[in-house]
Amino acid sequence: MTTEFVGPDGEPRCRWCGGAPEFLDYHDNEWGFPVDDDQRLFEKLCLESFQSGLSWRTILAKRENFRAAFNGFDFNQVADFTNADVERLLLDAGIVRHRGKIEAVINNAKRAQELVEEHGSLAAYFWRYEPKPEDLPEPQTASTSEESVALSKALKKMGWKFVGPTTVFAFMQAMGLINDHAKGCVSRSKAAVIRKRFKRPGASSGGS
Hints:
Keywords: Metal-binding, Zinc
GO molecular function, one term: metal ion binding
InterPro entries: Adenine_glyco, DNA-3mA_glycosylase, DNA_glycosylase
Number of strands: 2
Protein name: DNA-3-methyladenine glycosylase I
Pfam families: Adenine_glyco
């Protein structure tokens, strides 16, 4: 994908971040940089599931409302949500009021607890699916990958909901499991440096 968007600093960026004013900060400071914090990982996977059928701009605009509604996406708290919480959230105009997706977040919080109990952390488990750089297609030319399909299948087998391969791939892009910034994007080299220094959860040292 070509980099057709030039930021206010004159530097080229991924074309998509010129699609809305709020995308620039998200692109420059979050998207594609490695994350090992379980709460952030859980939040992003939930938000990606809410995005299904919608635009990321819609979800990003409502992100603070989602955080308030789901206790900051602390899955240990969300796992205790009841049917009354579901009904409360269905009345919350600040989020996407989709019963199936709301119930999926609560279900997935419980599955997250189980995964942490078995594997130590969400980060340690998710980062097992980091692809080798040489196996990646050209940046931003794919919507799924062999790894996103594998992780999606594994999560579904454990009972997670709304975690299809496309949702999981978008999650992997955003959380830095791959560096999918366009080749001419100013953030690609920045992400590469951070990824090189990043210590993979469960590993003795960082990878490339």
